[in-house]
Amino acid sequence: MAPRIFFRTALACSNCGTLNDARTIQLSSYLGGDPEWSWVEPGEVLDLPPDDFANEFLVLRAPDGPDITAIELWVCNTCKLYSPARLRFRARTANALEFVGADSLPALTKEILEGANYMTRRIEEWTVRPGEDAARIEDLKRQL
Known about the structure:
The chain is mainly β. It has helices at residues 52-56, 110-115, 134-142; strands spanning 4-7, 11-12, 19-20, 28-30, 38-40, 45-46, 57-59, 67-75, 82-93, 96-104, 118-120. The strands form three sheets. Strands 6-10-9-8-11-7 form a six-stranded mixed sheet. A three-stranded mixed sheet has the order 4-1-5, with no helix packed on it. The radius of gyration is 14 Å and the shape is globular.
């Protein structure tokens, strides 16, 4: 498994509403070949080919252009519960991606899942909430 990349962007928790500071947020993924953990802010470019997503995430739908979205779970520093976030990237070259930013997601609805390219493998740890696409989430859990 690759080292973690921590994404420094402030997000509000979908459970308690607390705004988690970009410097301390627990939003990360296993991506890339860098032997050390790294921290990136929106606008920074990663030495990361887009194909790496298929190795570390479940594929929801292949990207059809330079924009890539991945859903990752993160832990709120206040309530300690998981919240979903949409990570946004843009391919700059065949081996470089810009981290565009992240958005806090209130729920994993059908529309959110259909609009994303990749889903975290940690989906197995997610408890389905009211209004979420329970059938699709359970299907993703079975793919692990």
